[in-house]
Amino acid sequence: MEISKPRGTRDFLPEEMAGRRSVESKLRDVVKKWGYGEIITPTFEELELFTLKSGEGIIGELYNFKDKGDREMTLRPELTAPVMRAYVNEMQSFPKPVKLFYFENCFRYERPQKGRFREFWQFGVELIGSAKPEADAEVIALAMTMLNAVGVKGDLNIGNLSVLRHLLSQVTVNVENQGKVMRIIDKMTKDPEEEKNLTALLSELNATPTLIEKIKAIILLTGKDGMAAVVKAREIAGPLPELDAFEKTLTLLSAYGVNDYTVNFGVARGLDYYTGIVFEIYADGLGAQKQVCGGGSYKLISLFGGGDVVSTGFGIGFDRIMEICDKTAAKVPSIVLVSKPETQKESIILAGELRAFVPVQTDIMGRNFKAQMEFANTAKADYVLIVGEKELESGLFSLKNMETGEQVSLSRDDLLNKFKN
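That's the Histidine--tRNA ligase sequence above. Prediction below.
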């Protein structure tokens, strides 16, 4: 009986994994240079960790189970909550800011489709302990730098939920209605008819016609000129200190070389979760699932038993960027070493010396000389190294370039020096 992989999961074969590791390595290189340290959290956590953050409704999307101690557990659906839990458990005494990154697999029970899987990988960053514009600017600039490092050109949209929060604070909005408001806002950019639904909902919440118009004006406020958008937001909502901080964030982004973006006060990433700045990055070539990165500032630590600490972070959808990024891996030449039974021991010793610098395969199938050469061709080796009795006697080994057909004889030292560099 043939057993297939579970629905919504994938097998990554060696050639594809080479590309994935190459992209992962480039992202790691950038984030480490910015002073972030890696964190790994458990693959499964207590179910309550995620229901506290997202509500009981998320359970339908989870791979949750009871362990043998009858405890409610779940495979992690994302990594921000586990990192915040780890901070509360073990890092509250660390000097601020605490700068962390992670790259792990996550699990969600949902309908698989293009760019969306039940097991997926997320590369994320969390900067814990600073509510300053400098923190917001650094995190946004870091996200753009990471995507640029792997050849992804993203359309950056930046918003600030504190303005919308200020306006909604003038009506009674409970958690349930807050969720309804945000869902309508999220749909308004795609369906203008949702504007009528927002008006109706806000009217039910006893918002005045003037306030409703202000809320809709903020939601629809976008512009490539960030400073002009901030000025317009002040005209609508008043001289909020949060807008002063937002203006400084945009100013700092220019110092990072991030000048091409859209200020979009309608970016709706969850009013119950994010507290201030929010941003999303979209890329072409992905169809409807074109968002490759999203983040912002939030407060979760107090929810998990810690202090009132602000964090700013983002998550990159690794599987999505793999569809459009530069997957070129650094080329490392490979060698298939061809030998005879009489020279097998010496060939293994030589292969061990060469493996300090390059991948080397020796025959473990008992193939004859001709079959070993055919295998080298099938395996797409870059070089064939012949270690026969004649080569051992002369001390010169025949090295054939499989692409050009050129064959040279090299001493042991010359052979090692060739691949050492």
